[in-house]
């Protein structure tokens, strides 16, 4: 189990009995505009989607009173070109299967259908155009948040959505000098699951039951994904 250090600072926030120390004062919950829908956006390569993604989205939805969380599978994840990534259609369908039973969850094809490398500034601009009546909350794990300054047009991201960084076992959740007020850091139930580990398990013939939803286990099997990798 990795450490889950929080940035220390003068003020703190108490979440489910765990003291969380924030860098910039008490927890900032992002925009609160009466009459506007609160839309969570969970971007990911989802190769495959696993219970760590689903628990993070569910917990953020509850803590931030979101009306909906849209899962957005990447088209071409340009920072993962050093590895083999499953076809976008397979990643999309696994995401649909995994989220189908939750009425608060939906899946968007925008990053897949746009084509080319996936940049979150494009994702958020497109989602804003499609949902002009909504405030957007972009959900990222500790690892992704730590790398956010390497994303294209990173300085623009925080004008497009409020960012929520969630704890992830094995990673330290820090705010790497992001604009004050643009990010919230929260604790979510710790699930030490990664897509990398799921792929490796399938390749070795080990089970992924209970790491990913049952329908995703069956889809991986049916499509013979990750075998022999
Ligand atoms: N177990 C987890 N707990 C919390 N957040 C997670 C967890 N797994 C992934 N995330 C977050 O979900 C988002 C999408 O992750 P992604 O699809 O890249 O999965 P991954 O498990 O990190 O994949 P890979 O191992 O292939 O890099 C990222 O913001 C990531 O930080
Ligand atoms: O905008 C970018 O340049 C950028 C670079 C890397 C990752 N992202 C986004 O971060 C989310 C998680 O990505 P990944 O690669 O960890 O699955 C997903 O929505 C990606 O589109 C975005």
TrEMBL record:
CDD domains: NMNAT (cd02165). GO terms for molecular function: ATP binding; nicotinate-nucleotide adenylyltransferase activity. One of its GO terms (biological process) is NAD+ biosynthetic process. Pathway: Cofactor biosynthesis; NAD(+) biosynthesis; deamido-NAD(+) from nicotinate D-ribonucleotide: step 1/1. InterPro entries: Cyt_trans-like (IPR004821), NadD/NMNAT (IPR005248), Rossmann-like_a/b/a_fold (IPR014729). Gene3D superfamilies: HUPs (3.40.50.620). Residues 1-39 are annotated as: Disordered. The keyword DNA damage does not apply. Catalyzes the reversible adenylation of nicotinate mononucleotide (NaMN) to nicotinic acid adenine dinucleotide (NaAD). HAMAP family: NaMN_adenylyltr. This is Probable nicotinate-nucleotide adenylyltransferase. The gene is nadD.
């Amino acid at each position: 189990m990795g450490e889950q250090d929080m940035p220390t600072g003068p003020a703190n926030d108490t979440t489910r009995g765990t003291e969380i120390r924030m860098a910039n004062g008490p927890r900032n919950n992002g925009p609160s505009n009466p009459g506007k829908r609160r839309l969570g956006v969970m971007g990911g390569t989802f190769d495959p989607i696993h219970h760590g993604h689903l628990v993070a989205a569910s917990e953020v939805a509850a803590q931030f009173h979101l009306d909906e969380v849209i899962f957005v599978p990447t088209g071409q994840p340009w920072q993962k070109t050093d590895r083999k990534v499953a076809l976008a259609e397979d990643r999309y369908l696994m995401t649909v299967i995994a989220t189908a039973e939750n009425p608060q969850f939906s899946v968007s094809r925008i990053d897949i259908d746009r084509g080319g490398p996936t940049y979150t500034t494009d994702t958020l601009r497109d989602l804003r155009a499609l949902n002009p009546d909504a405030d957007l909350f972009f959900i990222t794990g500790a690892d992704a948040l730590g790398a956010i300054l390497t994303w294209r047009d990173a300085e623009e991201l925080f004008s497009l959505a409020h960012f929520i960084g969630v704890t992830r076992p094995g990673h330290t959740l820090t705010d790497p000098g992001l604009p004050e007020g643009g990010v919230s850091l929260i604790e979510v139930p710790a699930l030490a699951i990664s897509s990398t580990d799921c792929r490796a398990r399938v390749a070795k013939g080990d089970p992924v039951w209970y790491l990913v939803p049952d329908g995703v286990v069956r889809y991986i099997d049916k499509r013979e994904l990750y075998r022999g990798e």
